[in-house]
Amino acid sequence: MTRRLAEVAKKVGVSEATVSRVLNGKPGVSDATREAVLTALDVLGYERPTQLRGDRARLVGLVLPELQNPIFPAFAEVVGGALAQQGFTSVLCTRTVGGVSEADYVDLLLQQQVSGVVFAGGFYAQADAAHGHYELLHERKLPTVLVNAAVQHLDFPQVSCDDAVAAEMALAHLRALGHERVGMVLGPKDHMPSRRKLETFQAQGGDPGLVEHTMFSLEGGHAAAARLVRRGVTGVICASDLLALGTVRAARRAGLAVPGDISVIGFDDSALMNCTDPPLTTVRQPIDAMGRAAVDLLVAQIDKAVVPADELLFEPELVVRASTARARAAAQD
User: Fold this and answer.
1) What is the pTM of this model?
2) Residues 256 and 294 in one domain
3) HTH lacI-type domain location, by residue (predicted)?
4) Residues 327, 202 within the same domain
5) Residues 227, 83: one domain?
6) Where residue 239 sits, what CATH number does that domain have?
7) Does 174 share its domain with 260?
8) What are phi and psi of 80, to 5 degrees?
């Protein structure tokens, strides 16, 4: 008990006597200090006293699929900062292969009595994945926001980048440069944002025979793009910047130059894409605006406001750098 008092007091910056008054429900402590002590208990992993468990902790779960893709740490920074401004502490939960699953994290967050959960890049975006843990959150009426496209039956507010506009921008850019054989490297076939990009690609006259699906990684992009290179594409649109970097590597392994022989477009505009060789042309997700909107929707739910289970679509931006250029045939005309 003494150790717990000391750790919580140090975390909050108050005396052990103040912590003791909060834990024993005694008066003489401001609401702000009381809330800070209870939040510190949650963060440090201590159980709240029984009489103090009725209110939810001012903790919010932030569930991400990974941290290797730079877009996810960047998003976590935006959401964490916006939550802090609203008086909440984010609890970062990152899935690991063969380790803690998304469903496990949901169980853990429910045990910690979090105030809400923000998901980014979760299984809600995969049609063939298990969705039982989302249904559990819905049953518990826990405030929840999903970032980017979800399967149809999940009844939560969503904040998404407009994948259709992203694909249209990328394809229009390559066609303006004279590229006629344009391919796509997308995520898995059941991945909803990839499906949206593919639908737009085909609606705009893109060749479905020049589309490859793969896992979201540098290696996946390399393998998928290598197959497209053998089919003679001169431009490739990718569903993430990592896939685009894998595509650049595949082109070079085949003895081709980027953008001299093949133009490559990514998606996200994650960190350091202006420092790659060549600097990557990509479609930027407005993660600052999306992250703040996700937090606003979540806090509104926590405050008992009625928030429709609609999808807010944010406009992407084409960022032209040096990985795209005029097609050779067009350049020679």
Assistant:
1) 0.83
2) no
3) 3-57
4) yes
5) no
6) 3.40.50.2300
7) yes
8) -60, -40
Count up the domains in the chain and report the number: 3
* CATH number of the domain within which 19 lies: 1.10.260.40
Q: Which two tokens stand for residue 267?
A: 């998606």
Q: Are residues 177 and 114 in the same domain?
A: no
* Same domain? 144 vs 33: no
pLDDT tens readout for residues 129-162: 999 999 999 998 999 999 999 998 899 999 999 9
Residue by residue, what is the 3-state secondary structure of the chain? CHHHHHHHHHHHCCCHHHHHHHHCCCCCCCHHHHHHHHHHHHHHCCCCCHHHCCCCCCEEEEEECCCCCCHHHHHHHHHHHHHHHCCCEEEEEECCCCCCCHHHHHHHHHHCCCCEEEEECCHHHECCCCCHHHHHHHHHCCCEEEECCCCCCCCCCEEEECHHHHHHHHHHHHHHCCCCCEEEEECCCCEHHHHHHHHHHHHCCCCHHHEEECCCCHHHHHHHHHHHHHCCCCEEEECCHHHHHHHHHHHHHCCCCCCCCCEEEEEECCCCCCCCCCCCEEEECCHHHHHHHHHHHHHHHHCCCCCCCCEEEECCEEECCCCCCCCHHHHHC
Q: Which domain holds residue 43?
A: 2-52
Dump pLDDT digits (tens) for 201-258.
999 999 999 999 999 999 999 999 999 999 999 999 999 999 999 999 999 999 999 9
